[in-house]
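INSTRUCTION: Work out how this chain folds

Fields: amino acid sequence; protein backbone structure tokens

Chain under study, with its fold:
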Amino acid sequence: MSLPPPSPFGITNLTSPRQPSLLSMYPGVVATLGFTFAANFPPKVITVEEVEAQRVPSQTHLAVLLALQRVAGNVLASRRKENLSLSVGHARSLLSCLRESFMFARKVNDAVPLRRYMQRVGWRYGMTVPSSSELPSLLPQEVLGKQQYLHVLFTVLVRSVNNAEVAPIGEQDEARKYMTRLVQDTLEEYLAWTGVAQYIEEEKMPADAQQRVESFTPLLVATLKELAEFDNTELQRHMKWLYPLLTDLVMVPNGEVRVALSSVFSKAVRQLLPPM
């Protein structure tokens, strides 16, 4: 760590916090003290200019958004018909906020010129590996938002009709509509990004397809695990659009995806086969 010139007040014994990242949340303090931090390994100097770049946008706010997405998903997925502490209207508003969070993140992720600008000013958020070839992004917010949103919708659909905690029929119909659209779009995009199937026109293929594949893999695995819990009746409603996508996923090389896919066939699709 390099220190500023001796203070006219004789205060020269300045020490930095053990975690420079904490102080980096307050760039005004860093600029005033003139600190320059260096990590032990690998050696990399974090300049005041790089710290200033963290202001746009705040990484603290983005971390809070991830936490809020998890909280919203857990609260909505654990709603019960009896002893509701969250009204239907409030639940719908919260679900809309969750949907808006990943839709906004997607707009940022599709705005490549904006992401290139953020990279030039030193913003490094959302990069899967430290590499100059990757662009900063809000992929974590898009992926987690979609995962929590789908978890809420799947929770509504898999509840037994004989259970007192079942959601109203109208709520199930709405959940089914949104789930179908989002799952279909997600699977088609993933297959296109991996090059397995051409669900996206070549000129519309994002330049960061590989980065998106790595970020979206946990979402795909979680979605397949949710689909594996469908009963016979619910699964039959979706086989027309779902089955072709499932068979295409067989060609995806990722091991985690293939394991999750096998559970869909062995648990859910198997219900549709005639008894042995």
Observations:
- Residues 29-272 form one domain.
- Strands lie at 37-38, 45-46.
- The longest strand covers residues 37-38.
